[in-house]
């Protein structure tokens, strides 16, 4: 999902607009009550304005660090071992039926 | 002195000499908890019955003449984001309010193998996001040195419990300072180990490339003993360092002759409390008197650390917390369809700070903004790490304040997320670089403790413990007790 390139709210240049916040909320599977959107937009703007300082750093020839350790894949023998018993795996489920997790209907028809 | 005030290693001698039984000790800590918990509120869950049963088992061993280890029978508390089989693990979130893990974290298995007594699960900022324990989804925790100020966070319950005598030792977790900052605010020793030194298996993930479990204790000796139990390789954690952990108690010597200390000038920021600054310089004088040498070093990317962190940590969190969808575990709120169910579940059960960070992280990772925010932050992380690499070419350890000010009043920063984040300015670069750091008491501002941070090279925990021990043994800050008795 793309965000508009230029954000303009109340005549001020904003990092993130009210509309962006609504889009991000949907992507995050969150609902922001109508009365709170203004406040949340303001708080996110304050944080984004603060982190803008990162743009002062010259990073053209810098490799990103996602992890401090040189990670490599960890392999193990493909052996059959006991797994978590089904009842235990289901023990925290909000809803279950016939040994399965139960969710609202997803597929129509 | 009352039993609950001793350190673990002192209590171990008392157990071995049969001056006291493990059941008496656990009961003394439980009685203390009854007396002060209403003013401190350190706990989310207490496990009294199993604690007494664990203590009884240790007494049986002692009476049968069997050997016990230093932590055997010593009551401790776990931060409530460390999974305990059959015991609620909530992360101080309503979304996990009823979650009972079907397995133990690796550190919990290791502690059990030493016959430790676990007396409960400690309060924290929800999902470890925060620096005051005010973001708990259940209740705030109070600082035993002054109940009107915060204990720090996110491991605030762990630190407050140890400072108040409601536990002898604790485990916390540290993503941006969450062990060291509460240890500093509560006058305790807190160690964040090298990334990968302690298994994260069973630690509920916040920001996986930064999270590390570590001890909060009353002195450096106890810190070394807890580290001996929890450190080491774990095949269940793919980021675990595959090398044997040393015996950290061997570093409890007072010899720091010739130790090279670096003082990064960028950490002595504007807005630093005058008492804090004075205490740090006094500590350096003390270390020099003990034989260390010091020099100023420059770590020019320090000021960007906080900004990089507040992109990287929320980005990782937004991905890690996607699992709370109301399907296989945790809270569910019914909705009209599945997306509505997800949204209602998450909106109702996550607190404001958690939602804010999920949104910030989602934004930073979204198409069109990924390069500008997330990738940029990862590149700045490289530069922050390089600052440490270069400094450690010249010095053995770095010394900084743990926090720019002592603990603040409850409510003082809760409406200003940015002001709260600024408390982490000295601790965050350490997580970005993955190096170890310890906070130890180094003085007071009024009645509130001040923390000294010692930062080490990767896997340099032994040097940290040696330096911290030499400093601790040359002063008496660690012997002072939180004046909680008078509080009603």
Protein architecture, described:
The complex is a heterodimer of chains A (109) and B (488). By secondary structure, chain A is of the alpha+beta class. Chain A contains three helices and four strands, in the order E-E-H-H-H-E-E. Chain A has helices at 18-27, 37-51, 86-90, and strands at residues 8-9, 12-13, 96-97, 100-101. In chain A, a hairpin with a 2-residue loop joins strand 3 and strand 4 (100-101). The longest helix of chain A has 15 residues, at 37-51. The radius of gyration of chain A is 23 Å and the shape is flat. The relative contact order of chain A is 0.08. By secondary structure, chain B is of the alpha/beta class. Chain B has one domain (3-262, 393-486): Amidase signature (AS) enzymes. Chain B has an eleven-stranded mixed β-sheet. In chain B, a hairpin with a 2-residue loop joins strand 10 and strand 11 (448-456). Chain B is globular, with a radius of gyration of 21 Å. The model of chain B has no long low-confidence stretch (mean pLDDT 96). At the A-B interface, helix 1 and helix 2 of A face helix 9, helix 10, helix 11, helix 12 and helix 13 of B.
Which terms summarize this structure?
heterodimer, A: 109 residues, alpha+beta, Histone, subunit A, two-stranded antiparallel sheet, B: 488 residues, alpha/beta, eleven-stranded mixed beta sheet, 11 strands, 39% helix
According to CATH, the fold-level topology of the domain at 8-56 in chain A is Histone, subunit A
State the name of the first-level CATH class of chain B.
Answer: Alpha Beta
- Provide the domain count of chain B: 1
Q: Total number of β-strand segments of chain B?
A: 11
Straight-line N-to-C gap of chain A: 29 Å
Tally of alpha and pi helices of chain B: 15
CATH architecture of the domain at 8-56 in chain A: Orthogonal Bundle
- Percent range for helical residues of chain A? 25-40%
CATH homologous superfamily grouping of the domain at 8-56 in chain A: Glu-tRNAGln amidotransferase C subunit, N-terminal domain
CATH superfamily caption of chain B = Amidase signature (AS) domain
Largest interface: A-B, 54 and 69 residues
Unreliable spans of chain A:
4-11
Enumerate the strands of the largest sheet of chain A in spatial order, edge to edge or round the barrel: 1-2
Radius of gyration of chain B: 21 Å
Rg of chain A computed from alpha carbons, rounded to a whole number of angstroms = 23 Å
Question: How would you spell out the order of helices and strands of chain B?
Answer: HHEHEHEHEHEEHEHEHHHHEHHEEH
- For the secondary structure, the number of strands of chain A is 4
Give the oligomer, counting copies of the same chain as homo and different chains as hetero: heterodimer
Using the coordinates shown, work out and report the CATH topology of chain B. Amidase signature (AS) enzymes
